[in-house]
Amino acid sequence: MIINTILTVIKMRRQDFLSGIKAAIPVVLGYIPAGLAFGVLAAQAGLGIKDVFFMSLLVFAGSSQFIATSLISAGASAGTIIAATFLVNLRHILLSASLAPHIRKINNWLLTLIGFTLTDESFAVAIGSVAQEEKKAAFFLGLNLTSYLSWIANTVLGAAMGNLIPNPELFGLHFALPAMFIGLLVMQMREKHSYLVAVLAMVLALVFKMYLPGNWYIILATVLSATIGVISESWKENISPSSSA
Fold first, then answer.
1. Helix/strand/coil for 5
2. How many helices, marked H, and strands, marked E, lie in the chain?
3. Could you tell me how far CA 173 lies from the centroid of its own chain?
């Protein structure tokens, strides 16, 4: 059912699908080092190629997969791994809610697939694209499926290479995921307001890291800076008409 729907949409909207594939290129380039890094680290943690394949196929969340692999390596229980992955992925609710107004007219089957294959990286590209013009379902399919297949391929390749690299940290592979997020952030910074929010988030994260345990400083800095950014943007829009008058 869903495969037939996908094929029909792609056939009818071939150019939109190709446009989505083209938009996915920055994500694909980012997934090469990040996916390889995960595969290598997963192999070092004792996961086989089949394990890595099915984790990428069914989970498809870079940060969660890195965390799950670390917990598996540390001998954590299945409940702990599932809970940690669930908490880390809660941010996808906010990502989906933010994108929802732009995909209301899409078939429910396709919405399910788009939602499953939505990641931080594909969201960053999608939200930037819909801000310029309305996009069809085929565009999101091209973007998300290309990113999805790229992640699976690179993580499996990394797992195959894992035993050939005795100490992956020496090559900086552990920094691959943060580097990809930095690159995507730079792509989204098109105006002064974006730069200010990014700098604010960085400063808050550094300050909170000194006083808060664990990784809560990241969540708190993100929520506060995003909230301040939304409030300041709303304030700017409210005063613009009066200032022009």
1. helix
2. 13, 0
3. 18
pTM of the predicted model over 0.85: no
Using the CB atoms, write b or e for 108-125: b if 16+ within 10 Å. eebbebbbebbbbbbbbb
Token pair for 243: 């200032």
- Estimate to the nearest angstrom the gap between the alpha carbon of 53 and the chain centroid: 18
Cα–Cα distance measured from residue 151 to residue 27, given in angstroms and rounded to the nearest whole number: 9
Taken in order 195, 233, 102, 115, the sign of the CA dihedral is positive
Tokens representing 166? 């005795």
Q: Which of 34-43, 45-54, 124-133 has the highest mean pLDDT?
A: 45-54
CA atoms of 135 and 87, how far apart (whole Å): 30
- Amino acid at site 43: A
- The model's pLDDT over 223-235, given as tens digits with 9 standing for 90+, comes to 788 788 878 777 7
Cβ contacts of residue 84 below 8 Å, gap of 6+?
64, 67, 68, 71, 76
